[in-house]
Amino acid sequence: MADLSTVEEFVPIQQKELLALLSTGVREDGRKFDEYRKVEIQTSIYEKANGSAMVKIGNTVAVAGVKAELGEPFPDTPNEGVLTVSLELLPHASPSFEPGPPDENAVEMSRIVDRGLRESKAIKTSELCVLPGKKVWVIYVDIYAMDHDGNIVDASGIAALAALLTAKIPEVKVEGEDVVLLESTKGIPMVERPVPVTVAKIGDYLVVDPSLSEENVADVRVTMTTLESGIVSSIQKSGSGTLEEPDVLKIYDLAYEKGKEIRSLLAKLG
Amino acid sequence: MTVYFKHRDIVTPGDLLARGRFRVGANVVKVGEDSYYATVLGSFELQNGVLSVRALRGPYMPRKGDRVIGMVVDISMGSWSVDIRSPYEATLPAGRFPVRINPVLDDIRKYLKVGDYVYAEIAEFDRFRAPVLDATASREFGPIKQGVVVAIEPTRVPRVIGRNGSMIKLLNKELNANIVVAQNGYVWVRGNDSTAINRAVRIVKMIEAEAHTQGLTSRVEEMLKTLKSPGVQPSVSGEEGNSGGV
Amino acid sequence: MSESVVLITQDGVRLDGRRIDELRPVKMQVGVLKNCSGSAYIEQGKTKILVAVQGPREAHPKHIALPGRAILRTRYHMAPFSTDERKSPAPSRREVELSKVIREALEPALFLEEYPKTVIDVFIEVLQADAGTRSAGITAASIALAEAGIPMRDLVTAVAVGKVGGKVVLDLNEAEDEHGEADMPIAMMPSLNKITLLQLNGRLTRQELEEGVNLVKKGIKELYSLQKQALRARFSGAQVEV
């Protein structure tokens, strides 16, 4: 490869070993390059939340809780509900995570998850309007990364989606200016299932769903959120490496393919 | 073998300089089998098969043996901290000062205080330790007590000195001056005659501003002539440096 | 997308009269500030950004220093007066994220190992925001770094493509960014043909993604040559304008 990085950049020993392994077509945990770890999804695990989910990707664990409150709409969108997504990297998850205000990594990851949901227009926010200009549903999605064994972004995004898909909010009755919450509930109006899939580039190799040790040596990670129709609704390159031009579509194809598999798991949630 | 630029053309990082078989000089990187790229903004040079780029700007990187001028920025018990216009602050230990000092009995401020310039040599520097200065090896070393210190771009120092010191020798001879050019881009014009100092500073700033251009030596000779003819004040282009009288 | 706004006509002319593959007017200049290692100013349409580079210099606090290379720090910040409504000067989450991705877009180009234990700061101040601020910030930052004399593999050049009125277009302005269907900023090292920043907000098909990457290269090529002109002009005093 005619690449500067091979000329003068020093390659960490760990990366050398991993690259040697990858050149034989195998990843350190035995997976194929395009193989996702086992994904487990549990929903409705916290009954005080309107919706909740725990997602495990191998040993990586993220939970998401959805809380819905009646609040004011933004002035520029008086007829639409509000979505707020945040991600916290719990100190439980990794010795490198510290309690306190989110650092740039946490901010970036939570914005990736947020964009995947928002830009795909997954939630029909117009149906969350209760009293135009006055009362709308504000949907808070709070995600906790609980155990970090690589690929927190996907785990968080899938957990957020699973929690939203299974969340229940009260039906309401509007009496003049008053809003009465009823006993009966309904789901959050979801029209898309945006699934983030992360691909890491290590040397020249693209591997899907990187483990922690792969993340540690990867030059670049790219998260693409795709929809059932094949539309990509958010992309984020992360890390100080570079991509070749053809990588973009290769990563898209991997993300779409794996997104389909994960979407079929979500379909089983009902 | 193809060369894409002429000698002294200005090139930018990422410019493909040449393809073929060349030797790699300063600020050039070889990519793949036969492609050579510039890594800094500078003037292109090809001499004896060596491709290089002379940087137009950039920080001073200390090298062992370099003669530098620095400004004292801090004083501790047995040493001075000296700003040598580099990313790395230098230390001048009291034991490497030209005069014998007993740091326990003597207040080293007597010899150099904050804000003073000092001329010394880089005795140690290996990128893992801060540079250590030594002011004992030459009689010229030590505190700068007279004349003027002018800052120029460190990257222009080689042009002001000239090949084998030719430029600086020319200036000193023609202006009857005593100019010291330190590797870190400080120029010390010694003496007490303000007219002579003024002339020397002007011409040094001209060389700095036009260091990357062709025909510099002849323009310097011309300017020397003009400067020596009485009553003429030639204008000097280029940026101003920080000059400090001492 | 708001139906009321026609962003692009049937024959491919945009609100500001540009064709789909046309950049906004661009002006850039290096060496605009005196008291820093390198600086650059860029105008791209109504977007106006000032970049300063400080360093390499000693890292403070000292414990952040790395033994084998310089640390690159970037700060992308929007001036309170840069937007229609005053923006709070406190860094937003968006600014925190952009500072990170901009750093990661510039880092691959720099030979940071030349300056162990030091820090290089890049300050990107958006004086007026009219879309494309992160990409214009990167374009300007890379020439400010070059002006500072920091060794680089290549310049970094960035521009966004987007989807507006169903068409993939180059270099969105604010109206297109706000009402369009997608915004995809991309940064590259043009000579080495490597992508250093890739983001997308919005909805694109696979084919539009491919089209976008191709279109972005056209814009990057044009901006790259302007960057080089601006750097050369630094030593002849002229300003680059198109």
UniProtKB/TrEMBL annotation, chain C:
Biological function: Catalytic component of the exosome, which is a complex involved in RNA degradation. Has 3'->5' exoribonuclease activity. Can also synthesize heteropolymeric RNA-tails.
Compartment list: Cytoplasm
Protein family per UniProt: Belongs to the RNase PH family. Rrp41 subfamily.
The protein's assembly and partners: Component of the archaeal exosome complex. Forms a hexameric ring-like arrangement composed of 3 Rrp41-Rrp42 heterodimers. The hexameric ring associates with a trimer of Rrp4 and/or Csl4 subunits.
CDD domains attached to this UniProt entry: RNase_PH_archRRP41
Database matches in NCBIfam families: ECX1
EC number: 3.1.13.-
Exoribonuclease phosphorolytic domain: residues covered: 22-151, 154-215
GO biological process, any: nuclear-transcribed mRNA catabolic process
Keyword terms: Cytoplasm, Exonuclease, Exosome, Hydrolase, Nuclease
One Pfam entry name: RNase_PH
GO CC terms, sorted: cytoplasmic exosome (RNase complex)
GO molecular function terms attached to this record: 3'-5'-RNA exonuclease activity; RNA binding
Protein name: Exosome complex component Rrp41
UniProt-listed InterPro entries: ExoRNase_PH_dom1 (IPR001247), ExoRNase_PH_dom2 (IPR015847), ExoRNase_PH_dom2_sf (IPR036345), PNPase/RNase_PH_dom_sf (IPR027408), Ribosomal_Su5_D2-typ_SF (IPR020568), RNase_PH (IPR050080), Rrp41 (IPR011807)
HAMAP family for this protein: Exosome_Rrp41 (MF_00591)
